[in-house]
Amino acid sequence: MRKGPDAFHSLHRHGFVRVATATPRVRPADVSFNRDAVIAEARRAHDAKADLVVFPELCVSSYAIDDLHMQTALLDAVEAAVTRITEACAKLAPVWLIGAPLRHEGRLYNCAVVISRGRILGVVPKSFLPNYREFYEKRWFAEGRGVTGRAMRLGGEEVPFGTDLIFEAEDLPGLIFHTEICEDFWAPVPPSSQAATEGALILTNLSASNIVIGKSDDRHVLCRSHGMRSFAAYAYSAAGPGESTTDLSWDGQGAVYEMGDLLAQSGRFDVEPELCMADVDTQRLLNERIRTGTFNDAGKGQAPAFRRIRFAHRPHFEDAGLIRPIRRYPYVPNRESHLDLDCYEAFNIQVEGLRRRMESIGNPKLVIGISGGLDSTHALIVAAKACDRMGLPRDTILGYTMPGFATGDATKSNAWKLMRAMGVQAAEIDIRPAARQMLKDMDHPFSGGDPVYDITFENVQAGLRTDYLFRLANQNGGIVVGTGDLSELALGWCTYGVGDQMSHYNVNSGVPKTLIQYLIRWSIQSGQFDEAATIDVLQAILNTEISPELVPQSEEEELQSTEDRIGPYALHDFFLFHTMRYGLPPSKVAFLAWHAWHDAEKGLWPIGFPQEKRRAYDLAEIRKWLEVFVSRFFGFAQFKRSAMPNGPKVSAGGSLSPRGDWRAPSDASAAVWLEELRENVPEG
Q1: Are residue 402 and residue 293 in the same domain, yes or no?
Q2: Domain total for the chain?
Q3: Which positions are catalytic?
Q4: What's the pTM value of the predicted model, to 2 decimals?
Q5: Which residues define the annotated binding site for deamido-NAD(+)?
Q6: Are residues 517 and 620 in the same domain?
Q7: Mind listing the pLDDT tens digit for each residue in 211-264?
Q8: Do 289 and 394 fall within a single domain?
């Protein structure tokens, strides 16, 4: 595997394998025509830099030819065609899986033939033969179950034959695949299930599968669920137009799934050949298997049932782009059909977490510091809904805005408008007198009139706010509701202990900044609040620059911007998701980020995301902020996360609670990740 900045733009460098399903035009029993159609699609896939191409079941003979499968002339022609296809593919890069009826020891088998670089790697017979309703396969074929450890003669050579074959490239980690055929996929326990537990990462299916109403959805369900259970990719290729329509019809459905995610799907009922292609992240699959003990337990106690057929793939390591959907905002719901449900779930996970905590305590007052920023706004909305659900008045919530030395008029005004609109008890405590006294007691230069705005100056203000909130909770029989979000915890962008890192219960600890922004935006667009005043202030808060407002600004200076100091939260949330959820190395995170963010006009944005907020980041920016993320996440921030208060996990991306998804030593070094980043990511 090549490394270094020169190989950065190669998909093979980062553990991706380009998988395609091909639907060639066929004619019933016209072997020469079908042979040439397969070769034509093979060449097209080669030009597209595919690594693995899955053709439909029996594509060399065509599927729906009934008793013609038993004709010697046709079977002789099929064997000759397989040899010709193998020869024609000698100078083509991909591995081909083609379907053909083949004879062996007085039996006829429905087979997948695996071909690479002009060589037949092996032949896999179909395990389960449908013989119900419109299917009569047992009339023609012998079943492959129990056929293991065998060899057959094909193309003038002895080649491995059986249902016990897993194919592995010696020179492209991750190109490890198994193949099964149509009905095998519909069995209660598909053959590929055990193949996955023995190491196959890409599961493939050569299918005929005629189409009836609703069957396409059934195939999607099976591909998705089987890929999820197996921690694998699943590539499915069904026979298309050109098959006999004497009694049936065919739609040519092709799909590539990765662990339940649909990466690509073909058109259907297309009279032209289809090539459906996607880049499968085999490193992600391997990492998920390592992380999930259940997968490993599933293979315990089983004797090895598969032979490994190893071959030289000779990957190109070129810049061939990246063919897969990449979510710019991986924490943000992206299914239009499920948008309301996904946002409803995210929001109500937080509401239910707080409601249960209130119930267990005995319905305390809820004390929240309201800054007029995103996080406290969202926490207040959650608290209001929790009170509504429990039948408690909104004045159960005690909201405090606490202006400091740099609090802006706009944010303070928004804080008051929000509290009034939500109907909570609202008050203001000016922390500046107490902060001046503390700075004076400490003999800080600011107390003598010097404009020294260091970390002490900032944290005196942050700490006083939290100190007031805790004492107010004591005074009113309440609890402090935390507002700090997952993104801040990841970066350590919070004041430890007596600061915004601490609370009695933090409703936002599992929600990253980008999701908070989106949920507030969704609450406006979906009509969660009818009052015009509430909608107006929520929109104003969304439009406000993210800032801690701790350092005063002169007339010439811009507002203290958090994102100017530590980087865009959009990028940091992207880095966090792929680092924490999948354990990817920094160079791969950068590769994915570049493909997701370098062109604002390409790719999908979250539903309803404002056009004016869509921007791009070049590789130099991505590398710069990724280095900041790696340094802070691995080398600095863990001690704050190790002592974080309770709060609900919200996203499958995980939480940073030491009782949940992330456990790490507080004194670890970031050197390994920084070195990997600097050695393998170009500076521009």
Answers
A1: no
A2: 2
A3: 57, 126, 182
A4: 0.93
A5: 459, 488, 493-496, 640
A6: yes
A7: 999 999 999 999 999 999 999 999 999 999 899 999 999 999 999 999 999 999
A8: no
